[in-house]
Amino acid sequence: MDVRIDELDRKILRTMQADAGQSLDEIAKVVGSSKTPVWNRIRKMREAGVIGQQTVMLDAEALGFESCFFVLIRTSEHEADWQAKFLKALMDRPEVQEAHRLAGDIDYILKVRVQNARAYDVFYQALISEVRVFNVTALLSMEQIKSTVALPL
């Protein structure tokens, strides 16, 4: 479905990116419109796939997930069967917050959130027992400097 985004839509999206938990009345007030047109625009953007799943952001460290690893994976396997098995292994692991297939020397990068280095090792051992990889490099994030899911609208 093709959807055209105008400036009011962008204001709505920026407002929702800042806090999707706001009421429809609050969003309408912030964007300078009334409730019904704002609701209709949000509904259309949901139907068009512009607005996806809404969730809540949790504080990983407050919940005991103090370690964030970026895992670089190189593989010599590129067959469809291997890829399907690898993707299933990633999808089955809640520790994997993000996974990207890359161009260049590294095939995949994962963002893995765990309690500590020991928990990372458990994750790593389980992953390599399920799928064969050529090389794995784990980089521990010492400090998160910026994190956002907001797009620059």
From TrEMBL:
Classification via InterPro entries: ArsR-like_HTH, AsnC-type_HTH_dom, Dimeric_a/b-barrel, Tscrpt_reg_AsnC-like, Tscrpt_reg_AsnC/Lrp_C, Tscrpt_reg_HTH_AsnC-type_CS, WH-like_DNA-bd_sf, WH_DNA-bd_sf
GO molecular function, one term: sequence-specific DNA binding
An annotated GO cellular component: cytosol
CDD domains: HTH_ARSR
Gene: lrp_8
Full protein name: Leucine-responsive regulatory protein
Signal peptide: none
Gene Ontology terms describing biological process: regulation of DNA-templated transcription; response to amino acid
